[in-house]
Amino acid sequence: MIEVAAHLFTERGYEATSMADLSRAAGIAKSSIYHHVPGKEALLRGALEPAIEGLFGILSESPAQDGAPVERLRHIVRRQVEVLTTELPYVTSLLRLRGNTETECWALERRKVFDRRIAALVREAMDAGEIVDDIDAALAARLLSGAVNSLIEWYRPDRATPAELVAVVERMAFEGLRENPA
Fold this sequence. Notes:
Elements: H1 2-12, H2 19-26, H3 30-36, H4 40-60, H5 62-65, H6 69-86, H7 88-95, H8 102-127, H9 137-149, H10 162-175
């Protein structure tokens, strides 16, 4: 049911998806849904948790915690792309939140915590002289995450494999478009 909800929330939006829509898509009666969950918001939470857990799981991986800051950042970006491609409907639901419900506010706050951790790592890489330091670290982190997060708008598994996408995003983020980066 969570998977059905995630797909519908992505396709129609949370607010525009009714319990009737969910029951039709799942092929079960509305009362059957209520037997398992108290309501639509519980389904939303269930649809958001894989994305939140995936992102925070990345931060706990040893390559995200050990080594040079820029290498830790590269690892996180690679893994963000992997999580996005494997958990696409869940991540899409997360990234399209508006903060209209308690669950949405919870998820948005978790995203802010994640973003702050990335910004701190960007600052650390700047301080270590591993990346340019003439822009605001929080802005750089947001642009980096924004580049990854924008994939939800166009990525489809038949367009590129996750590994191909990881390689391109990593190259673009850390080397840019120049032929021979300095």
